[in-house]
Amino acid sequence: MTPAPRKLERRVSTRADAQLSMRLGGAVGMTEAPAFVTETQNVSSSGVYCLSPHYLAPLSKVDLTLVLPQAAGARKGEKLLKCEAVVVRCLQTAHATRDARFELACSFLGLEEAHRRMLEEFVTYRNLKALANATRGVGRGSTAVRRPASAR
Q1: C-alpha dihedral over 18, 20, 25, 29, to 10 degrees?
Q2: What are the distances in angstroms from CA 3 to CA 6, 7, 10, 109?
């Protein structure tokens, strides 16, 4: 039996599972989408994936503020990353709740290079930490669980 061909990964930037606070709202001059606060499900230096209580049409511009923790070893605190983003996907969730009715993916627009580097460092740190935690669990009866693609 021949193995199934691997699905081509279209993402250029590495992503990390992370629950970061963020705020989304309609971009200045665009149709006003209601502003709301949510949490990322994963993040990369090119965009975010989160759950939304509102439908946002694909290709809509939004203002996005992401609360990014300081890197390990840095002084304590958080950094607010503010930028515009474009909605690339907004699908109704299978298990909708009042606060999480849609799966929303946004791609950053015009992100400052310093902010992009901060995100890349955060993603690298988070993935290395997850790998270290998974390695510690090997041989202790724990197993890694991979979420289905629809839950990402």
Answers
A1: -80
A2: 9, 12, 21, 38
Question: Residue 84 maps to which CATH number?
Answer: 2.40.10.220
**Residue 123 included in any domain:** yes
Read off φ and ψ for residue 118, nearest 5 degrees.
Answer: -60, -40
pLDDT over 50 (residue 61): yes
In the predicted model, is pLDDT for residue 93 greater than 50?
Answer: yes
Q: Give domain status of residue 68, yes or no.
A: yes
29 or 45: whose pLDDT is higher?
Answer: 45
Q: Which residues contact 144 (CB under 8 A, 6 or more apart)?
A: 134, 137
Say how many domains are in the chain.
Answer: 1
Confirm whether 26 is domain-assigned. yes
The answer to whether residue 91 sits within a structural domain is: yes
In this structure, are residues 86 and 68 in contact, taking their beta carbons and an 8 Å threshold?
Answer: no
- Structural domain boundaries enclosing 82: 15-131
- Identify the H or E element spanning 41: strand 36-44
Per-residue confidence (pLDDT) for residue 29, from 0 to 100: 56
With cut-offs at 50, 70 and 90, classify the pLDDT of residue 152: very low
Please check the confidence at residue 1 and state whether its pLDDT lies above 80. Answer: no
